[in-house]
């Protein structure tokens, strides 16, 4: 899958999973006066592989949204398994913009039942335990993606 298609696919899925901005849940950019309840309203997104072509494009588009908090890993810790695992489990949604083997490794790091994983690689495309498809194809497909983790 080419980067632009991967980017579009990831962004459609972020919205279909309930990470869409709405007037009742929208918050402003974080400021010193931001309350704890406002911070809890923002969905946390971690883009594993954000330094690559697809990751940069996903980040650029999501950074324009003020209802999301993008978690970033320090450049010197990009290969640090413990730090990646921490961010993966802190996030509400993880977008994997990695080669297949690295996506498989990252998906195995999820230790909770709330983090949603979107994989832009081909690693899980035909795996029966993963949901794959475009939500706009049918209501059943939309519901399947929305209820997936």
Automatic annotation (TrEMBL):
Residues 1-24 form the signal peptide. GO terms for molecular function: NAD binding; oxidoreductase activity, acting on the aldehyde or oxo group of donors, NAD or NADP as acceptor. Transmembrane segments: none annotated. One of its GO terms (biological process) is L-arginine biosynthetic process. InterPro entries: AGPR, NAD(P)-bd_dom_sf, Semialdehyde_DH_NAD-bd. It comes from the Eukaryota. Keywords: Amino-acid biosynthesis, Arginine biosynthesis, Signal. Residues 44-145 form the Semialdehyde dehydrogenase NAD-binding domain. It holds the Pfam family Semialdhyde_dh. PANTHER family: N-ACETYL-GAMMA-GLUTAMYL-PHOSPHATE REDUCTASE, CHLOROPLASTIC-RELATED, N-ACETYL-GAMMA-GLUTAMYL-PHOSPHATE REDUCTASE, CHLOROPLASTIC-RELATED-RELATED. This is Semialdehyde dehydrogenase NAD-binding domain-containing protein. It comes from Thalassiosira oceanica. The lineage of its organism: Eukaryota, Sar, Stramenopiles, Ochrophyta, Bacillariophyta.
């Amino acid at each position: 899958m080419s980067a632009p298609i991967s980017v579009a696919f990831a962004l459609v899925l972020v919205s279909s999973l309930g990470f869409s901005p709405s007037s009742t849940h929208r918050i402003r950019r974080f400021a010193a006066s931001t309350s704890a309840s406002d911070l809890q309203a923002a969905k946390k997104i971690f883009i594993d592989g954000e330094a690559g072509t697809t990751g940069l494009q996903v980040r650029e588009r999501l950074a324009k949204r003020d209802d999301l908090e993008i978690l970033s890993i320090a450049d010197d810790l990009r290969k640090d398994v413990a730090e990646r695992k921490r961010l993966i489990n802190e996030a509400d949604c993880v977008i994997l913009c990695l080669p297949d083997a690295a996506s498989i490794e990252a998906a195995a790091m999820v230790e909770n039942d709330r983090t949603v994983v979107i994989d832009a690689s081909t690693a899980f495309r035909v795996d029966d335990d993963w949901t794959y498809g475009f939500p706009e194809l049918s209501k059943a497909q939309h519901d399947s993606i929305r209820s997936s983790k």
